[in-house]
């Protein structure tokens, strides 16, 4: 039997008791106790799928309506997988899931069951979520549970274990969301949730889930041309009061879609004449794009986005200009296209190498509420981050995201938005600085930095510590200590992911600490290790999470070339002793001080320079002596002549002195 796993010293999770009926697409459910209570269960999430942490925090203390609430969340050591895993603690439904299989058929709900058991409590839930600024984005028939064994009421499942809209069937998404890539649907708004409510109501009325289209793109064009209500409801027979609410919720024009207030009034007994489907106006003649023929502005925008590699020639042609300015008869669309392209002159003067950017901007002008489409990547701007996080190891995804960022399409898109720009300013500011990060190739920058700038809550994906699920810079040093204590150390405790993670998450990590990483022009011994220890020492100082002896010992080994770089043997021995002593403290900063001692290094360099000079001087003298010794005969003659001269001089002096003395006597 597996041991119980504790979360935050409160919740006990039992790995031996899976609850598959409560699984989410990217998470597995397990039995959990809160003290003696079993009213909760644990959802162990896939670490590769980003959580909606901002939504989790926004829903704290949520009242008990009919939403599966998050009571707590955190990270645990999950023995089954042998790694650390994110966990959510959620309300445990007292009943089962309504649709456990896409093909399942249930007894259709009556009007009273819909009103009392689902809509009334859920409208209160949506109003509370709206006031908190949180969207659900996970409303669909197979995410509904009975709140009690008697099946009188229904609760909506969780919405935070995966990016918004990721697992939503296309039929449950509004047109603005379904036109985006699945991973890039974005947070959306309350109107997108209300559309999902409409589709869910239709399934409860018919007792079956909507079948998915065999050709999703064909279905999108059908919904554009004929309206989502007509495509989804089809020939289904409905009571008039249900037609009213469904037409209100499934309209494709967001300004015409029912609001929470409209639903509240409908539940209160107000009845209105069902809204007629409002279709996009048709042009006087269709426009041919990529082998298809399209009659309205939204269909053309979607078609040129999908045929981006050939659409530039079409846009520059006279047919498109005539269609836009004469056949379409939509001055708003003309004005928007002119705004983002510079008008007909701007289109014609755009260089050939900017074709993809031109197509993107024309599509934005034609359909400002649609996703931004660039080189086959269709996204809402808050969906770019999740796309990169989910598929970072895929080369094609990285290239698509990099191309999108380099296109600088967010600014033109913002210029044609009708909603308040205040809520877009932060995102625009973030995207505006991303090209700088992307174009810097060193560690701490590049596409890795983009990943962490756009995903503020994902864990560090460095291969060294990914299994430890590190989400905060304060956790980095303990994680590296665990790696140091293990038996499979990488060459150095730093890589591009870790550097980018620290650069994006820690405001105290300055550019001067990141830029030297990977600097190949600096040839000093152990310079890479020195630059890394300087960065990590700063993190350890800021985190204040205690001594890390294993990590320090790791750096003792890495800094050996720098120790051996001291030329004076006594100085080298002293430095080695100091490094070992500093490592015992477990503080990287103490080791760094030794190698940042410029005076000691200067003294060693100066002493080495003097020694080199003395050596060179001695070498010259030795060379001269060797040269002299090679000519012994001439040396002997020269020495003999010198000796004879000295001796004769001495003899002459002695003789002269003797004669003088005898004369005086």
Number of domains: 4
Specify the structural class: alpha+beta
Output the CATH class name of the largest domain.
Answer: Mainly Alpha
Strand line-up of the largest beta sheet: 1-2-3-4-6-5
Q: Residue share in helices?
A: 40-55%
Strand content: 5-15%
Cα-based radius of gyration, to the nearest Å: 38 Å
At the fourth level of CATH, the homologous superfamily of the largest domain is Transferase(Phosphotransferase) domain 1
Based on Cα principal axes, name the global outline.
elongated
Specify the CATH architecture of the largest domain.
Orthogonal Bundle
What does this molecule look like?
With 665 residues, the protein is α+β, with helices and mostly antiparallel strands. The protein is built from 29 helices and twelve strands. A hairpin with a 3-residue loop joins β1 and β2 (11-18). The longest helix has 33 residues, at 632-664. The radius of gyration is 38 Å and the shape is elongated.
Topology:
Layout: E1 5-7, E2 11-18, E3 27-34, E4 40-45, H1 53-58, E5 70-78, E6 83-91, H2 111-131, E7 144-146, E8 154-156, H3 175-178, H4 190-206, H5 216-226, H6 228-233, H7 240-250, H8 260-267, E9 287-289, E10 292-294, H9 297-306, H10 308-316, H11 318-327, H12 331-341, H13 343-349, H14 355-366, E11 372-374, E12 377-379, H15 384-390, H16 395-407, H17 410-415, H18 422-439, H19 446-454, H20 476-485, H21 496-505, H22 511-514, H23 527-543, H24 549-558, H25 560-564, H26 569-584, H27 588-595, H28 598-629, H29 632-664
Antiparallel strand pairs: 1-2, 2-3, 3-4, 4-6, 5-6, 7-8, 9-10, 11-12
